[in-house]
Amino acid sequence: MIKRLNFIAHQIEKAMTNQTFTRQQLYDLVWSTPMTTLAKKYGVSDARLRKICAEMDVPLPKAGHWEKIRAGKEVEIKELSRDYSGKEETTLEISSQENVSLETPLQKLMGEIENDLESFLIVPDKLSKPDELVTSASQKLKSKDVYGGYVSSWESPLNIDVTPVNLGRALRFMDAFIKLMRERGHKVVIKDKKAQIVVNGEELPMEVREKKKRVLTPNNYGYKDAQDSPSGILCFRVWGKFNRTVEWKDGRVPIEKQLSKILASLEILSEEMKEYQRKLEGGLGRASKERKNSKKLRKKKGRRAIWI
Length: 308
Fold this sequence. Notes:
By secondary structure, this protein is α+β, with helices and mostly antiparallel strands. It has 2 domains: 2-103, no CATH class; 119-277, no CATH class. Helices cover 45% and strands 20% of the residues. The protein has 10 helices and 9 strands. The strands form 2 sheets. Strands 3, 4, 5, 6, 7, 8 and 9 form a 7-stranded mixed β-sheet that branches. Strand 6 and strand 7 form a beta hairpin. The longest helix is centred in the last third of the chain and has 49 residues, at 259-307.
């Protein structure tokens, strides 16, 4: 079945000279090529392509589908429903080779992660077989008193500082992130009693916290006092060397949907830090050599003065 779909998709791409897809062609494409690859090729966002498929009642592969195929496992392929009365065609803008080549390193790495680790990019609604670090943090956080509206796990390896209503989200995000890191071949270690991720040999402390917003409230003297109040916005922060602190937060896209971007950014960041370290050491080496040569020259000049 997979070979047949691959053959059909190849024939469709070969024969098609315009940007119009029939419902059947769209079905054949999404079951023969990962969604992220199609989205980039045809100049449309992943979310938009999924929306088009939903509008045209085109079923999509489940999470983990392409990983199972790469592992040689059996997969379930949903048939295209014939009980449909909507539009039969859609138009997409096919990306030129020029546009594809302009893809940033971050976008390329995100695409690779999304294709290889699709099932690990989903933050579940409930914790399932949580990592022991998450289990420990969960137990300590749930037994803590709320202070200033927040519960914090500063005494446990995982740094989490959120309001009780966002505690579940923070724990599920952290669990998914740790599992994704390990599946990608990176490590999570404990150093100075705190959990750190290790990306390409670079140790990076991390935390999940809920941002605060400044609220002005009237006081008894006719003025307004500034007070911090929970914002409901979760933020994931990582500290790198050379003051390279980076963070991701809820916005139009919640942090649960930013896992591929976070991981790709961290891999790029680790390489940048390594390159900076190499340049720094090279510069220090040259400076040290110049100082030694200068010192030798001064001594040599001093000896000459005495001999004359």
